[in-house]
Amino acid sequence: MAIVLKPKKSETASSVPTTSDLAVGEICMNVVDRKIYTRKSDNSIVVVSSHVSDTVGGDLTGTVGNAQIAANSVGIAELNVADGSNLQVLTTNGSGTLSWTSKTDATVGANTIGITELNVSDGSAGQYLTTNGSGTLSFATDSTNVGATSVGGDVTGTVANIQIAANAVGANEISANAVGSSEIATNAVGVTELNVSDGTNGQVLKTNGSGTLSFTTITPGVTEATATSKAVTMAIALG
Q: Is residue 88 in a domain?
């Protein structure tokens, strides 16, 4: 009659024998893990046979117990899809079926691309997206936005809000007959806008005929009507 050898065994996954389970040289197996163990003379428990630690190859790397798909090993042949034509992209119908489609048929949903989807760090408020021409995106300040730049000379303020400086406009800045009532808003021109120091109460504005304005007192004996007529004449001459 044939002798049946039955080594100790376990059917519990990851169960490993201890020195109390085995004598030196005795073997046992874990059927679930497919491992055979023995006890060495130094009382350590070792695996003497196991497919789990065997090295795998082909399209896989690692061991039986930790197999990894090798880099660049999945192509058309490994996918459940017929090959497409040049430049088409792989798409799914959402139900497990793959197919190839032309890029012109591929669309991006509205408002689906933001900072998170772009390979760029967020900028600050008001900056715009730019490229270095070599595939690198970044945010930059618009150097053409000069609205806040200060101005000088005969004007003050900024480019976006230029103001004519006080006493900047005289006879040299205005060509003859260039300024009339249609060019000046009502009540827009006062002493501040003229290149002249203010006078005293009752004085009138006069010119020396060479572009210099000043205030003068009406000569005693000159009637108000005469002074008014002269003032009107001078105002017309000034435009």
A: no
Residues in the chain: 239
Q: What digits encode the pLDDT tens for the residues 77-110?
A: 888 889 988 888 888 999 989 998 887 755 777 8
Residue type, 53: S
The DSSP annotation for 60-104 comes to EEEETTEEEEPTT---GGGSSS----TT-EEEE-SSS-EEEE-GG
Q: What is the pLDDT of residues 146-201, one digit of tens each?
A: 777 888 888 888 888 888 888 887 777 777 777 677 777 787 778 887 888 888 88
Query: Which of 34, 53, 70 marks a domain boundary?
Result: 70
Domain final residue pick, 42, 70, 98: 70
116: its two tokens: 């998170």
Q: How far apart are CA 152 and CA 31, in angstroms?
A: 92
